[in-house]
Amino acid sequence: MANSTTATRSRSATKSNMETQILGRSRGWLERAADFIQRGEVVAFHTETVYGLGANAFSDEAVLKIFTLKGRPADNPLIVHVHRDYDISRLIDSEPPYAAALREKFLPGPLTMVYPSAGKVSKYVSCGMNTLAIRVPSSPVAQEFLRAVDLPIAAPSANLSKHVSPVTARHVYDDFNGKIPLILDGGACTGGIESTVLDCTGEVPRILREGLVTREMIAAVAGDCEVYHPKKGEKPKSPGMAYKHYSPRCETAYVSSAEEAIEVYDREKERGGTPCILCESGQISLLGDRNSLDLGGIGEQMAQRLYALLRKAEGTSSLLIGIEPKGKDGVMAGVLNRLRRAFGKES
Fold this sequence. Notes:
This protein has helices at 11-16, 29-38, 60-70, 97-106, 140-149, 169-176, 215-222, 258-270, 299-314, 331-342, and strands spanning 5-6, 21-23, 43-45, 52-56, 79-81, 111-116, 131-135, 153-154, 182-184, 196-199, 206-209, 226-227, 251-255, 275-279, 292-294, 319-323. By secondary structure, it is of the alpha/beta class. The strands form 2 sheets. It has a 12-stranded mixed sheet, with helices on both faces. It has a 4-stranded parallel sheet with strand order 13-16-14-15, with helices on both faces.
């Protein structure tokens, strides 16, 4: 992992009088992070899914700072992150037997579990609801950070609201340079999309947000698993449910075939634009010499590549054209959720 590096101060950093540092494993890095958290600051950190924007979950002021920094809607709840040995009974009221079995099987890992809250953390974490979402990330950097602070850390993805989620420290820096003091760099995230969010408050576990831990995987342990489909206008029960998310800063078009993509691409090219097509590996050969980005051939690969490619496209393309992948099951359910929302489509 890289040694400590200090990011160059930008115009925005000068205005806010804050220097944003990117630190890998180096002397004093965890002490610096813990000190910032204790002082009510917000620190970005690596997880196996995406980078998180973390603050002390017990502090109203620190939690509200996350919402302000991101421009996050006030009714969009946060997830609390803890290290693997943290006693979550301090934070929740109850846990059904199936939830304990799921924790044993999948944690640490990309699964967030929603419990009845004991009301110990800031009321702003769950936006007034009586539940609490808890995650135990498997990233070594996240685990070391969480052990160093030994506090529940409220953390959404470390991007401006609705922008593409960050999978490198540089992505975080691009959104928050001069606005936060520290980014803990763990390299590129291997999972690539946010954790599965699972409601564990009922008799049967229910997926609120699909991700790398699939319905089939959960049902194999718990005996059953439902998938929740939010109603229009309903208050979100989980991050990433009710708003357009993961959006690149360029025009987008979403199509169902290579033929449609080519038509849209050629029209944009004729207008003098710089279009690009994002698609799964099997579609690339159908596009000729048109500019394209290879999303991959299987669900796990597409999840890992998606956000990095969306970030790449927004810097080079006037129009990004997405071709919907053919797979729908397993990890692909989470990939399609993020892809459709990135292109402004209902999931």
